[in-house]
Amino acid sequence: MVEKFEKTFVQLAQCELSPEEWQAWWEENKVQLEKDLSRGVFLKLKPIKHGLRWVPILVSQKRAVEYLSARNIPFENSDLYQQHYEAEFKAFCKIQKEQDKIQLEQLNKKIPQVFQTYPKFAASLRNVYSNSDVLDGGASLHKIEQVEASLGFQLPNDVKRHFETAGNYSKPIQGIFIKKSGVKLFSITKPPLKE
């Protein structure tokens, strides 16, 4: 029964379908495919949900190549989807970099004291700041004095200046979130696992 689908798998392997054509074909045939294919093959071929247009078809194409190769079904492999993906990803990165630059400029206007007090930190932000980062202005001197009172000692002047300059700071680094809130100590946490 699966043989009737193999012609489309060959078209997919040869990059003859657009992402929209592949998605439409999949939606039209997924019930029968789920019956006829093993669960593993079905899930491998199933187009993934993704924000980029070419990723789902590229992933499915690679699985179609595996499927056809394992069954010695002839086809001419193509890297056209890979080329489209690379161009799309490059354009996405360029747009993202421009958006990050604009956000950093807005941040500089919002809390210029961070950029003035810590020029090296500000310079490093130009290379690594992204829209997932959070950086807010510092705590008031009154708040810092309250923390000192609760601690029972005075903070060094440079530490006070730091807390007055930069408040909330959060940066995800490879799935770990480094966060500093106000005049509290840093906390490092992993995000909750998705079930």
General description of the model:
With 195 residues, the chain is an alpha+beta fold. It contains 9 helices and 4 strands. α1 (3-13) crosses α4 (55-70). The protein starts with a helix and ends in a 6-residue tail after the last strand. The relative contact order is 0.08. The model is unreliable at 182-190 (pLDDT under 50).
Total domain modules:
2
| Overall pLDDT score | 84
Count of helical segments? 9
Structural class: alpha+beta
Tell me the strand order in the biggest sheet: 1-2-3-4
Radius of gyration: 26 Å
SSE sequence, one letter per element: HHHHHHHEHHEEE
Can you count the beta strands? 4
Poorly predicted sequence stretches spanning 5 or more consecutive residues: 182-190
Strand content: 5-15%
> Which percent range fits the helix content?
55-70%
Keywords:
four-stranded antiparallel beta sheet; single chain; 61% helix; 195 residues; alpha+beta
Secondary structure: elements and pairs:
Layout: H1 3-13, H2 19-36, H3 39-45, H4 55-70, H5 80-110, H6 112-117, H7 119-128, E1 134-137, H8 141-151, H9 157-165, E2 166-173, E3 176-180, E4 187-189
Antiparallel strand pairs: 1-2, 2-3, 3-4
Helix pairs in contact: 1-4
Write a short abstract of this structure:
The chain is α+β, with helices and mostly antiparallel strands and 195 residues long. It contains 9 helices and 4 strands; from the N terminus they run αααααααβααβββ.
